[in-house]
Write the structure tokens for this entry.
Amino acid sequence: QHTSRGTTLVFSYGGHGKAAGFKTIQETWRFRSVVEMIDVHFAGERVLFLVDCCASGNLATWLAPPHVRQKKYACLTTSLQYMATSDVGEEWVTNLATIKSLQCGGGRVPLS
């Protein structure tokens, strides 16, 4: 509520996910509830979701009308709806790529 109209919120999540939402240690943050809370309480006008978890594609369902009415949303996810992030057992694809690129020296992203 302390943001101005032209503000952009970047919501980044890397962790476990379920079809219904973000899976924390004790509960699931339902995609629908997170989007509704942001839509109502965030005073800015744009929201970018960067979501790195299984079933993250399900979030996109809640970013289109009639579910949201007040904000402009963009979403980058690492899986399709109801899918795991990787079929080779690697988790947090985006987060691991970012960490590896920062560890390679000088902040340069490796091309191989």
Observations:
- The first helix runs from residue 31 to 41.
